[in-house]
Records
---
Amino acid sequence: MDKIPPHVELMRRLQIADYEPASDSGHLRYYPKGRLIKSLLEEFVTLKCIEYGAMEVETPIMFDRSHPTLRRYLERFPARQYILKGDKREFFLRFAACFGQFLIAHDSVITYRNLPVRLYELTRYSFRKEQRGELVGLRRLRAFTMPDMHTIVKDMEQAKEEFFRQYKLAVEVLREIGLEPEDYEVAIRVTRDFYEENKEFVHSLVDILKKPILVEMWDQRFFYFVLKFEFNFVDALDKASALSTVQIDVENAERYDISYVDENGEKKRPIILHCSASGAIERCIYALLEKAHMQAEKGILPMLPVWLSPTQVRVIPVSERYLDKAIEIAEELRRRKIRVDVDDRDETLAKKIREAGREWIPYVAVVGEEEVRGGFLTVTIRAESTLKEQKRVRMSVDELAERIRRECEGKPFKPLPLPMLLSQRPSFR
Ligand SMILES: [Zn+2]
């Protein structure tokens, strides 16, 4: 039996997600904290792709198996699918957003002036019937959320330009999520022909991150692409899984009969790029949890980035006498768009502080006599604390709010997904 990956224990203990035994394997349930983290990531990656120039669309989650184009596609690239029986037809659940977007592109009028045309969808979900033995936690699922962008370009020159920019986009998106280049390995897969003709271009990709990358060369093109990169996260058990990827597809414009009108009014075949700027959203959460675990092994206090932390500030009154004051402070922080809660339970102060630590809460503010009289908060800053020494700082409510605002700049915000008072919360395990 394989070891349980650290992120599986963490997703349960932090009440993020768990297996759903009443569903098929590889379909999870998300608790309020998990739903929050997931939806913040979903919104963030979507905004980054729209900012990049994509047009968001929505396509069906199931398609007709006997549709002529799709049937040819499925024969060429068999994937493990879920099959549904409809009235008289059979449907398959999508395993990517490619076909939905290609079908839109097929029916669209596109001219050279429009290119590049970028279509984007965040699929919730894409389905892949992975083998049961391969399924694990948030790493490999049968239903996953995928930011999926397809870029239609006029020729290989434009394809290379886009590929280069999307490579950089992926680096930036992962970095803002909390995954640095040292957290993943870069792999490039390329056909020999493409490499021979574009050596300089392939090498220019190596220069971006200034670290060694794996280049795999194929004598023949097995798939639809001539060039692809992958960022592979390596976890605590030394398993690698792909996050971001971009591919240059030279086959599907033909298969789906996608064309554009060139300067002379003639119909031309474009090239298409497939891009997932972050990889599956579930896999980003997996990577963040595994990373936090690996940091804890090195003696660093584990935490999530502040913008993704379900509770950003916990206010703890030293005794019941200070509860009203604690709530007042929390209300003020909440008005400033900070996810804040109050530990109003009938427990010792030491236990409350310990539990805030076990929940990885970035800022823990204690309120007692001294604080009320002095008009400040005593805040423990997790990012600056160690196992041995807690970093405690006196701060005003304003200073704390301003610090968090700066840390979360440019990121989406959603309110606390649970009651503010801890005593009012159910426990999800
Ligand atoms: Zn695709």
---
Amino acid sequence: MSRADSLTAEEVIGSRGFVDDGYPHDAWRVLREEAPLRYFDLSPRPGFWAVVRRADIVWLSKQPDRFLNAPRVAVFSDSPPPDPDFPNRQIVRHLLNMDPPEHPDYRSLASSWFTPRAIGRRRKEIERISTDLIDELAKKNEADFVADFAAPLTLSVLADMLGVPREDWMRLFEWTNQMAGPGDPEYQIDDDAGTTMRTARDEMFSYFSAMVEARRASPRDDIVSVLASAELKGLPVPAYELLSYFSLLVVAGNETTRNAASGGLLALIENPGELEKLRANPALVPKATEEIIRWTSPVVQFCRTPVEDFEMHGQKIRAGESLCLLYPSANRDAEVFEDPDSFKVDRSPNPHLGFGIGEHFCLGANLARLEIRIALEKLVPRLEEIELAGPFERMKSSFLGGVKRMPIRYRLR
Ligand code: HEM
């Protein structure tokens, strides 16, 4: 039996996520080298084909009419088996489980808020929030980087774009943790991932329903007002899709950038030479930002489902089966990245797939990039010393590489 044949599904996507030492990069390397398309059984749940090379993920993602997002968004290794009466039952319905021609119509409803120019107008505000948070950090010499910097930064920027008032930000934070990490015992309701997700979804939906009503009556300059009054082919956006849209923005906008910022700081602590390079040359911030996204790859996977049988790497894949695109694996593909297992703040070129590619390319990429750039611009020059003061605690999830706590000890100017 080859090394690739002996790998189990748990070793490739985690049994309930990757907890102790992060992503299974060794297993993914074996697959890239020996079995670029291997099937993993998950009975009684449907299995999946692991897609691990960058070129294959690009090829699949760029054919959204042949390889669909809708039926299965991701492989949740701990989800209950599908209900035979409702095999496509979805807890939410938003961009990530829509396909053309519906998908671009929905995407365009919010896209003007996320262009480089629209996001650029937020720079001053993001700089102010970052500086305030760093000034608070500077009053102490120990903190939890997640709770005291990464989470409040990403949460406040997005909550503000949506128009959610400050007193409700903590509720958003809790719902996103429950939606993104329903398998993590710390966030679970009744020890059950499904109940956790549904409860968080219901609470978020009723919160945003009330907000939609309020904004329809008296609109403001925020995303909720824009979507609440938007029309598709002359009709208002249906309630379920409208509320799902907000839940997508909240979860996608928070869980990912928070983890990139925290994982990025961890990489700088573990590679002091790289931190020194960045400190000596602030012009490297944009490159360092891309490298942080490549290195941390906060989204582990999304699935595509072929509409008809096809062949790839000599394997026959049937219509309806699941292709699991493993982005962090693509981001360590030695065919594309020189010395892929090294973290280099000046890496160039860096064609990483951290934000995906094609039809579903991350809507929030400009925002995520700007937040990480500003965090680096503001934090690195003031950092005299920094080390981990306790374990980097990861969230239990086979879908997002979340981090719950990151205790640090430091001296800030
Ligand atoms: C470092 C941070 C981030 C990473 C790594 C990331 C990653 C991704 C990836 C890989 C996809 C592609 C999904 C696919 O191909 O099926 C995606 C889609 C998406 N992301 Fe992000 N994301 C980040 C930040 C954000 C932020 C700040 C927002 C803001 C709201 C956001 C909103 C979205 C949305 C709405 C989609 C769906 C786009 C579509 O289906 O058309 N993301 N993201």
